[in-house]
Amino acid sequence: MNNCLGGRHRNSLCEGTGCPEHSVCRSECGACGSVASACPSVAARMVHLSNSQQTADGLINSLSASLSNLAAVQAASSQLAPSGRPSSEPHHSSLPDILTSNGEAADGRGSAHHTGRIGKVIIERLENERFLSGFLTRNPFRKKSPAEDSAPGWRLFGKVPPKPAPDKVASTVTADSSLSPTPLRKTDTEASTTALILENRPSNLPAKSAEEQQRHRHEYEQMVEAAKKKELKDAKLRKKRMQQKLKYEEFMAHSLKVWNEDILPNWTLMQHNRKAREYWWHGLHPRIRGKVWKLAIGNELNITPELYEICVSRAKDKIELLQREASEHKSAGACPGGVAPSVLESDSLDRESSVELIRLDVSRTFPQLGLFQKGGPWHDSLHSLLGAYVCHRPDVGYVQGMSFIAAMLILNLEVADAFVCFTNLLNKPCQLAFFRVDELSMGSYFATFQDFFDFNLPKLAAHFSRHAFTPNLYLYEWIFTIFSKSLPLDVASRVWDVFFRDGEEFLFRTALGILHMHEDILLNLDFTYLAQFLTKLPDDISATALFKSVKSIKMQIDHRDFERVLASHRASSSTPAPTTSART
Known about the structure:
Blueprint: E1 3-4, E2 9-10, H1 40-84, H2 95-99, H3 108-136, H4 146-149, H5 210-263, H6 267-270, H7 274-281, H8 286-297, H9 305-332, H10 355-362, H11 379-392, H12 402-410, H13 415-425, H14 429-435, H15 439-456, H16 458-466, H17 472-480, H18 489-502, H19 505-517, H20 519-522, H21 527-535, H22 543-551, H23 562-571
Antiparallel strand pairs: 1-2
Helix pairs in contact: 1-3, 9-11, 10-11, 11-12, 11-13, 12-13, 15-16, 15-23, 18-19, 19-22
């Protein structure tokens, strides 16, 4: 036998042939590294097995001797029965009589024969019990030796290359074949896995041919090489991004100094300066962003902080009035048609009643930040700003999506200054057309965008046209929220920076830049997937990549800039406006 003591000692030579468990072993113990006689656990087992074997042998020998004596006594008693004892005397049962199971006469010959047969049965049972005791004491899970651990097995990636294995015959069973996976060590720097490439098949399967083994080894090397190249490429990309980030931070620190010392103190003179515009294109530092936004938007409506407080007070009164009317209406019973009488006082809806809608929309604004939800630090500020605007412009009221624009301003300005910028920003022609849902004006903007779309991205524009995918299906929300809902917050902030420098033209240029950036993907999508992709843009859009794409967009067609093209569409009554989605 090759295995000793349930597999704890391998490839050993045994001294003596009487030990079925190989109690004397010269090999080292797989658990403790010592010889069998020095291993406490192995020695204890050997003693136990030796004692069990001696006990079983002693029982068998003593029982055999007893049975032989009983047979002799029984034969002698049967010969003395006629003269020594009458047959009518009571007869005490002997061991053979007790062991008799089929009712046969307990005479001398039959009893001796039966006793010998029962003795053989008992001896066989004891032998079986000794075999079972030895079998059950074996360890079925034998520990591998260091030589077997280093044998080639399942491995995809790793430092150690696959070791060449000798050719095997299908019928040959080798001890080094193992399906146990190679353990992944903490010192490995490369990713490893198991059960993907089997260099040597299990022993119960036909062995690989030399050609197949060479092909698998070549595939394995290719996979390892590809993994190393990918890891190296990712490392270079991470290093490049880190360098770009550090370089951009250094630039922003320098630009902050230029803005504070040169541009902001001389805003009127430096606003359209080439140097200022160059710094502006690369983004504003967060410390001066709000200040530059406020100067760039201006205050044509002459909104004051006092007016903001008045509008906030009116909004609170309106909310209390609506809540009181709602409770009275609920207690009085449902009104026919399910509409409160106060809402139907005139043919048109009272726009100030839309203050109540703000409560529902504020909690949906930048939920990933947790700043504007109930209990957040700016929840009340955003709610007050939107309510004040509704009371200030009841003709516009509240339109779903305004909260994102207001939140962007609150993130960079005080609430009162944010209200001033908010009211002036929404008074711009483009924003006013979209928030008032002026379909004629919106149609002019869509047509202008389509012209520049055809000019800059003709292939993608034709693809959209084949699928009847019109600009209003994706452009409405982008312009409506000034990309604050569609792009990551840092990217949207940079879009806002340049939007306040270049005006509404940059919004449509950014839209074309997004399409140009994802042109290869969009060309392979149909109507449904186009809508899904453009209404939920990827979250990993980079500001650097986006502005590089935006810079490639040309905003002149036949020496006509955006304003001239837009003016031509406004003047042309024959140009049908694309269908726009109804106001929410």
